[in-house]
Amino acid sequence: MKIYADNAATTPVLPEILSVMLPCFTENYGNPSSIYSLGMNALRAIEKARSQCAAAIGAKTNEIYFTGCGTEADNWAIKETARRLKREKSKTEIITTNFEHHAVLHCCQALEKDGFTVKYLPVDEYGYITASQVADAITDNTALVTIMYANNEIGTILPIPEIGKICREKGVIFHTDAVQAIGNVPINVVEQNIDMMSVSGHKIHAPKGVGFLYCKNGLKLDRFMHGGAQERGKRAGTENTAGIVALGEAITLATAGIEDRQAKIITMRDKLIKELSKIPASRVNGGVEDGKRLPGNVNMSFIGIEGESLLLNLDLAGISASSGSACTSGSLDPSHVLLALGLPHEIAHGSLRLSINEYNTDEEIDYIIETVPKVCAKIRAMSPLWEDLTHKPEMFERFAPQLSSIN
Ligand SMILES: *Cc1c(COP(=O)(O)O)cnc(C)c1O
Asked: What is the pLDDT of residues 211-256, one digit of tens each?
């Protein structure tokens, strides 16, 4: 059996999305900036996609700027807004959380080198922050608040409309990375007080290498790429017509009928969580409260197991999953998201993220439920840490508050 359970890392391009892309390569291949009909047709296709993206989030078409990926949208929003406010208003403070995607965290760290102060709000043990934490952190020196809509590793959904309201009241610009939330949470940028928002195509069945930044009209947005006049002069470079057309189609599909699609996914997720929680000395990472966790996200830790070897063994059994985020695999550091929950390294290291969607089946879920405990037992049988934990109760004591029982 081959099971793909890593949809938070990326998703396959759907056949109906591929079919709208293909003509952009071979027939409708004109340069959208050319004035003859072949170019105009490409431009029209891009403008249709722009309307689709705008409609999907309750924005206007001239508030959508296509980018090369979600990461680029984050870089654009954060760096250019911060630099402009420093230049124009001498504001040098940024507020974010300590469990953002690296696309946001590393932008903030880069800005620290340029003289900005960044407040990394701590999430609680379940991976939540509150709007009042944000309210308390804002000062006259705050240039920007950037807080993710939903976390890519542990799936927690943050109170973005409330945070947006606070920022609006205090006159501070608010950006959110909605790459994981789009298609899972109904988003309306007007009703939810969002000034800027990043979206990526490949997490919602469009191809890799396309995304967009929403920027509210009236808010100044500095140019990100210098060159030609594409994207109203703000992001030069010949447009990725096929990718943009795909993104328009993908976001339309992803944001239609969210609730209908979710019932099935939530049932599968909850079954996974319930059954895998029977593994001794395990824990569920992230909150389990209704409506506060992405429907397809399961994140668990099993002490005495290295995430990497868990993944390799699951791969041998035909299951594609992840430990922490795809972006940090290859590094041996435990996930910064799990450390932000206050977990010790020993627990953070042995983590498993399964991210499922409506294309997963009940049979696949049953196979995962059958396979993960076997793989865990096999790895633990070779683990010196597990040997100690099972033979020296005083050693397990230290981890007991955060884990289920070891027997
Ligand atoms: C995947 C992801 C990104 C990066 O998007 P790319 O299009 O891969 O650059 C940013 N933020 C979050 C929360 C993500 O999950």
From this structure: 999 999 999 999 999 999 999 999 999 999 999 999 999 999 999 9
b/e string for 14-24 if b means 16 or more Cβ within 10 A? beebbebbeeb
Per-position DSSP letters for 319-369, written without gaps between them: EE-BSS-GGGTTS-SPPHHHHHTT--HHHHHTEEEEE--TT--HHHHHHHH
Residue in 13, 55, 29, 22 with CA at minimum distance from that of residue 252: 55
394: which 2 tokens? 């005083």
Instruction: Identify the residue whose tokens are 């998703």.
Output: 11
Does residue 24 carry a pLDDT above 70? yes
Cα radius of gyration (the chain)? 22
Return the structure tokens found at 168.
């609006």
Å from CA of 404 to ligand 1 middle: 32
380 contacts: CB under 8 Å, gap ≥ 6: 302, 304, 305, 386
CB-ligand 1 contact for 389 (6 Å cutoff): no
Contact by Cβ (8 Å): 187, 181: yes
Active site residue 167: no
Report whether 285 contacts 125 (CB < 8 A). no
Q: Residue 331: pLDDT above 70?
A: no
Q: Which atom of ligand 1 is nearest to the CA of 325?
A: 15
- Identity of the residue numbered 298: V
Ligand 1 center from residue 396 Cα (angstroms): 36
| CA separation for the pair 373, 180 (Å, rounded) | 28
Provide the edge-to-edge strand list for the sheet that holds 211-215.
64-67, 211-215, 196-200, 173-177, 142-146, 93-97, 117-121
CB of 71 closer than 6 A to ligand 1? yes
Burial category of 130 from C-beta neighbours within 10 Å (exposed 0-12, middle 13-18, buried 19 and up): middle
Nearest atom in ligand 1 to the alpha carbon of residue 74 is: 10
